[in-house]
Amino acid sequence: MTARVPGAAGSPQTLDMMVNMGPQHPATHGVFRMELAIDGERVVGLIPHIGYLHRGSEKLCEHEIYSQIITLFDRLDYVSNFNNELGLVLAVEKLMEIQVPERASYVRMILCELNRIASHLLFVGTFALDAGAMTPSLYTFRDREMIQALFEATSGARMMHNFFRVGGIKEDVADDFVVRVDRLLGELERGIDEVDGMLSFGEVLLARTKGVGVISGPDAIDWGMSGPCLRASNVPYDVRIDEPYCLYDRVEFGVPVGTQGDSWDRYYTRVVEMRESVKIVRQCLAQLQPGPIMAQLRRIARPPKGEVYAHAENPRGDFGVYIVSDGGERPYRLKVRPPSYCNLMPLRDLVVGSYIADAVVILGSLDIVLGEVDR
Amino acid sequence: MTGNGDRHAPPARDQAEAVASSRLTARGQALSKLLPGALSKFRPTVGAEIDEVTCLVGREWVVDVAVLLKSDTALAFDYFRLLTVVDYVETAREFEVVYHLYSLERRHKMALKTRVPESDPWVTSVSGVWRGANWYEREMHDLFGVVFRGHPDLDRLILPDDFEGFPGRKAYPLYEYGEY
Q1: Number of domains in chain A
Q2: How far apart are CA A110 and CA A282, in angstroms?
């Protein structure tokens, strides 16, 4: 990252220029900042800066009872709230050895998979924007809004749901839930096909994303990447398969992987994943039976002494929660493994050597959410 | 102080370290039998938490243990999941550093642990073994003041450059501090 001396080594050279990108930049998806060292249009160095959204969530968690922590988790990855809540309640349930009623598990799976689709739709729209295409975002936001409407009908809130509870879910879903979700799935499938046909194999998108920001499988593993970013590099690691939670062992679905590990693969892995999520939701709807939605528990969860690590497959990857409990109503220590954080780590390796315009595409393809990176 | 200190009696950690094998899956049990032999020269204390093999080693061995855990074909811990520091200053005047590891190849997992005294909190960096540990170590240095020796770039990551104190620690107040 050192500035090169002009005219050294015989050839005419210029000094590298430092360009600051973010934190108020639309293509950084929040408040991410990077210092770019550029030589003409080429990026020769990159220093990432995070922490603009650091709220000390983990420290706050040490001072709240478990049911209050759920609201804090809503605000980590704020476009896949249900998945975050699931990570927390899974950890507490594992610590307390609670058996969750089947109906609650199925409802959780349905909501989480729909949330995955919503999150990926948002990704597809913003990724297209990053690559210079305006129109797809209008389509994906339209479809995502249908999912948010269902979430609002179910939990009462568009985004900060606070719907999952330790031992089950807050309240049973409405009578027309199954019919509504079924209808929604049909519309989503149409929407996904539409945006896929419009965008995925378009010449411009291919030119902008193919071979851009390549990371090999072993490198991606070494950096601790997960989710679609890891699978795009042909590593079929999915928590839903490797360590099934909820009732994922009762549904059948495929895990799409890429071959090149470039930005296009990271994009297309997510597109295919949305279709797999639709399949999962269909199976859950078929298996959903009436029954209790909460385990019999005392009102305030008080896990025994001990520690636990539980994780779940978020839209962004392997979302883990580590809880150290001292037997009290509040965790002694709580630590989150945020998938975006790990996916963002190799950014310098991915970007250096490419053009500035590609830096935007590469960052977009990682699909980070700063609420989760900074916590 | 936070007013929360009394409610928290920190967990007793010197429990009998007998491996409660019923809490582990078959893979976990196999691993907990494998670890004491594989790491014998580092004198590890192998235990078990819910569904998780734990292994406590001295802080001076962490890097050597990490290299072995990654390179040994029977262990093959190639995936770095999480690094945490847990504050036990009130009871034991020390921090516990916890590394959550996973093997994509063998599909087993473990928590490697080490303890560092509050007065001189350092541990050797494993970011040369798993690059995924890089930012975690910077973050924990930021929030807890634990120094990771040998880290290529232990700059501030989460907090502003001129921030004073270590807000992750239990002793750092939750409310009573000046506005930044």
Answers
A1: 1
A2: 9
